[in-house]
Amino acid sequence: MKRVPRPFSAVCLALLFSALTLHAGFSHASESLARSKNCFSCHALDEKLIGPSLRDVAHKYAPTRSAAQDAALAEKIMLGGSGVWGLIPKPPNAQVSLPEAESLVAWIMSLDGTPPPAPEVTRLIPRAGLWWDPRRPGQGFNIEIVADQLILVWYTYDAAGTPVWYLASAPRSEPSWSAELMRFTRYETRTRPIMTADVAGTVTLDLATSTEASLTWQIGDASGTENIDYFTFANDTIALRDRTSANLTGLYFDPDNTGYGLTIVTQGFRPVPQGVESSVGATEMAVLYFYDANGEPRWALGSSDYIPGVEVNVPMNVFRGSCPNCDYRSPTPSAVGSISHLPFLTGVGRFTSSVDLEPAGLTGRWDRVAERFGRMTSQH
User: Do 155 and 261 sit in the same domain of this protein?
Assistant: First the structure.
């Protein structure tokens, strides 16, 4: 007698596309479930009926299983589909729950004998940009990733309340990362600057999430632990896809005059009025890492409006505040000049600084013009 084709039952036909992880003890339970959902009205274990045999289904999908494919195919158990095993449609079946579909697919895939896919591991990555301890505002950390290295710049104060910065770099090892804290000095000579680097201490970063961490440090005889968070200083009002190409967040340096650098973070992307070169604007925060007249590492911080395609001018302040293990007092700012840069939309641009430390009670100036100032790190 000629068999008349008819639509596959939703669960049975969706099984053809499913390949979830096999768990011990599923064999009998899932076969019983398949029978209760009428799968065997369309399929047999080893021979083709209206649809292919369940073992053929296993041979087709089990060898190339992945977690992403499993998730997509699991949906088809409940939603149905068509076009893989012929033209007969596979209608949806709302009576099948997701756990039931997963159990059925695991059993079908076990008929092939291929081991289940290894679980996917999500690597915890710290969000690039500025971090801070909200209990001690006025100092902070720049966390960036370069290739497989994590870089941390800590801008803070020494025991006298004078600004100082440290740099740490080591291969990534999330969720816990440790490195030596380096303190740099720079001395000018007639021919070229001389840089020295000394190990000031150690730092360990323990990530809880991509925006929350515990930071443990040791500098000389002092040590401590701070709970730090990603620093959000301005909220975006437009979608990420509209601002990605304009995001300048990163750590920048001068390839022709190494030893100093600049952190830029752009947040608060928003529409701007018509009549300017771009319809997108943001807030930029910048931290300049440089040296005083005695070669000691200093830093200055400022913020300004930022519009892609327009030169940015950022007024800068030097602060005096509390060392990491000192009783906290609010930092006091002194205006010391400004920096400016072109947009860096290609990662490289013109940078100038005009910083005079005298208003902050320090000695020295940092006047620089760099034509190839470039981003060391990529935006995240």
Answer: yes
Host domain of residue 41: 10-110
Task: Check whether residue 15 and residue 93 sit in a common domain.
Answer: yes
pLDDT digits (tens, 9 = 90+) for 306-322: 887 789 999 999 999 99
Pairing of strands 250-253, 222-230: unpaired
- What is the pTM for the complete model shown? 0.67
311: its two tokens:
């030169």
User: Tokens at residue 235, please?
Assistant: 């909220």
Q: Which residue has the tokens 């941390």?
A: 152
Tokens found for residue 240: 């990420």
Exposure of 304 in the CB half-sphere (CA atoms within 13 A): 20
Same domain? 104 vs 133: no
* Interior/surface letters 164-176, b for 16+ CB within 10 angstroms, e for the rest: bbbbbeeeeeeee
| Ramachandran angles phi, psi of 181, nearest 5° | -90, 120
Angle ∠(68,73,78) on CA atoms, nearest 5? 135
**Taken in order 178, 183, 189, 193, is the CA torsion positive or negative?**
positive
pLDDT of residue 21: 31
Q: Report how far residue 158's alpha carbon sits from residue 139's, in angstroms, rounded to the nearest whole number.
A: 11
